[in-house]
Amino acid sequence: MKCNTDLSDSPIDFSSFIISLSSSVLISLGEIPHPDTNEKMEDVCFAKQTIQILEMLQEKTRGNLTEGEQELIDSILFDLRFKYVQYVNKHPQ
Question: CA quadruple 82, 73, 61, 48: dihedral positive or negative?
Answer without folding.
Answer: positive
